[in-house]
Design a protein that fits this description.
The protein is α/β, with parallel strands linked by helices. It contains five helices and six strands; from the N terminus they run αβαβαββαβαβ. The structure holds flavin-adenine dinucleotide.
């Protein structure tokens, strides 16, 4: 991995003094760090970590409903959020729209279905865009803003997205067209830092 620095969202519940931390990494063909994690990292190797940072903060309590929109590995911050909510009083009503290509490219589905059983305020809707026979899903095709329950729009839900740039731009435009103010829409981009510019 060399000196490369990458960010990975924690996937477990936020608890005081945990025994360890979990992340979920999607392997990107040709990607420097995700390939090293998948093929080279071994138990006992030392990886330097920085403390968590960022401004993508999800509400543990909220008078407004919360709509989560995840594409593929963009589910990781929401997994941590939902597991953190367990047992908390005053949980908001939550709709999670989770879009993937097919069952094979859908991480954490079993964990999400288990969470749905334990969180009475959670509605999980899975969208598969390239269905394979035998895939489990709620709605075929890509997620669009028209999939959102209109009642949630009326109740001024807050929208949190973590997906590809293209999907987030499309959803953002769709929400604004429905009259959702920009300050009620939040997004997290999963991008590697730009490579350093070297002097010629
Ligand atoms: C706040 C934050 C949280 C993140 N959380 C996670 C997480 O929980 N799990 C996770 O797997 N990743 C996460 N990422 C993305 C991660 O940091 C890396 O960008 C990703 O693992 C690719 O790194 P790499 O070194 O393997 O690829 P690189 O060597 O950096 O890139 C190789 C090629 O892949 C392209 N590429 C880079 N990222 C992506 C991408 N996400 N999708 C498609 N193509 C890409 C690049 O443009 C380049 O062409 C997060 C990023 C941020 C900023």
């Amino acid at each position: 991995m060399g000196d490369a620095i990458r960010s990975y969202s924690l996937t477990g519940a936020a608890v005081a003094s945990p025994d360890g931390y979990d992340i979920g990494v999607r392997h990107i063909e040709g990607g420097q760090v995700s390939t090293a994690i998948r093929h080279a990292l071994a138990p006992g190797d030392v990886v330097e970590l920085q403390s968590p940072k960022g401004g993508f903060v999800l509400p543990l309590r909220n008078e407004f409903p919360v709509v989560l929109i995840a594409g593929g590995i963009g589910i990781t911050p929401f997994l941590s959020y939902l597991e953190t909510l367990e047992g908390n009083a005053g949980q908001p009503r939550i709709a999670l729209h989770y879009g993937c290509r097919d069952d094979r490219s859908r991480p954490f589905q079993n964990r999400l279905e288990a969470l749905q059983q334990r969180l009475p305020n959670l509605t999980l809707v899975t969208h598969l865009s390239r269905l394979q026979s035998g895939d489990r899903f709620d709605r075929p095709g890509q997620f669009t803003v028209s999939d959102i329950d209109p009642e949630l729009l009326r109740k001024r839900a807050r929208f949190y997205m973590c997906a590809s740039d293209a999907m987030m731009e499309e959803v953002n435009a769709g929400l604004e067209a429905c009259g959702v103010p920009a300050f009620e829409i939040f997004g997290e981009r999963f991008r590697s830092p730009a490579p350093p510019v070297l002097d010629a």
